[in-house]
């Protein structure tokens, strides 16, 4: 992070019925990448894939004026337990359609047509950006390095999300 870049307060959420702090490689990667980029981790949590529990924690983070970004990992697939899109998209004031589209475009170059099973998505609620990534560490690397690192950098031109989240 250069001295002109705005430091954001970010919460990281892992959606999983089985992961623990010891086994959560995706959440750990996101925390490390976000910190390395110069941002501040305000909170990190692991929540089971239950739409009401997900809404509870993310609603609390959206209401917290100190949190500007939520990045989640997990629960975006097609299994019966994958409910992150259904749980969180209803909280959005505006959807960020391009996030999921771009994620799948980049992911296609890495995993081919299997990317159609990704329901990565994003939105903004109460001036808080929410970006939801698949649960694999590879997908988190794709989302962070291919999109979020630049879009959460206030010096990235011609535009980034920082202006929508601060002031």
Automatic annotation (TrEMBL):
<feature type="domain" description="MoaB/Mog">
    <location>
        <begin position="11"/>
        <end position="155"/>
    </location>
</feature>
<comment type="function">
    <text>May be involved in the biosynthesis of molybdopterin.</text>
</comment>
<protein>
    <recommendedName>
        <fullName>Molybdenum cofactor biosynthesis protein B</fullName>
    </recommendedName>
</protein>
<dbReference type="InterPro" id="IPR012245">
    <property type="entry name" value="MoaB"/>
</dbReference>
<dbReference type="InterPro" id="IPR036425">
    <property type="entry name" value="MoaB/Mog-like_dom_sf"/>
</dbReference>
<dbReference type="InterPro" id="IPR013484">
    <property type="entry name" value="MoaB_proteobac"/>
</dbReference>
<keyword id="KW-0501">Molybdenum cofactor biosynthesis</keyword>
<dbReference type="GO" id="GO:0006777">
    <property type="term" value="P:Mo-molybdopterin cofactor biosynthetic process"/>
</dbReference>
<dbReference type="GO" id="GO:0005829">
    <property type="term" value="C:cytosol"/>
</dbReference>
<comment type="pathway">
    <text>Cofactor biosynthesis; molybdopterin biosynthesis.</text>
</comment>
<dbReference type="InterPro" id="IPR001453">
    <property type="entry name" value="MoaB/Mog_dom"/>
</dbReference>
<comment type="similarity">
    <text>Belongs to the MoaB/Mog family.</text>
</comment>
<dbReference type="Pfam" id="PF00994">
    <property type="entry name" value="MoCF_biosynth"/>
</dbReference>
